[in-house]
Design goal:
Elements lengths: L2 E5 L2 E4 L4 E8 L8 E6 L6 E7 L4 E4 L7 E5 L5 E6 L8 E7 L16 E2 L3 E6 L1
Length: 126
């Protein structure tokens, strides 16, 4: 059974930093993209960043480029999201996700991901 477990959420002031972790178990994701999405109250879930561990290919949403960094550990079982320069508009529940199949590109749509974590709250105060 595949499990994605996020950790590292919390409350931070504008301009601060937080780091999220996502530990994967149940299957190997080294050759499959793993991503972070977020969902703010009243809004649709949106793509934040993704990485394909075996190749280190990465994708970022324009809204987080230059502020957020996605990475993974050497075992390619844990994915991290380092968030710097946080803004109130970054406030959301952040979800880890993983694709089940490789289609040649990193997908950025919610429907492209088959496995999801439970989510972790990030609140940025102004």
């Amino acid at each position: 059974q595949v499990q994605l477990v996020e950790s590292g959420g919390g409350l931070v002031q504008t301009g601060g930093s937080l780091s999220l972790s996502c530990a994967a178990s149940g299957r190997t994701f080294s050759d499959l993209p793993m991503a972070w999405f977020r969902q703010a109250p009243g809004k649709e879930r949106e793509f934040v960043a993704a990485i394909r561990p075996i190749s280190s290919e990465k994708e970022y949403a324009d809204s987080v480029k230059g502020r957020f960094t996605i990475s993974c550990d050497n075992a390619m079982k844990t994915v991290y999201l380092q968030m710097n320069g946080l803004k109130p508009e970054d406030t959301a529940v952040y979800y880890c996700a993983a694709q089940r199949d490789w289609f040649g590109v990193i997908l950025t749509n919610v429907g492209g991901y088959n496995y999801w974590g439970q989510g972790t709250q990030i609140t940025v105060s102004s």
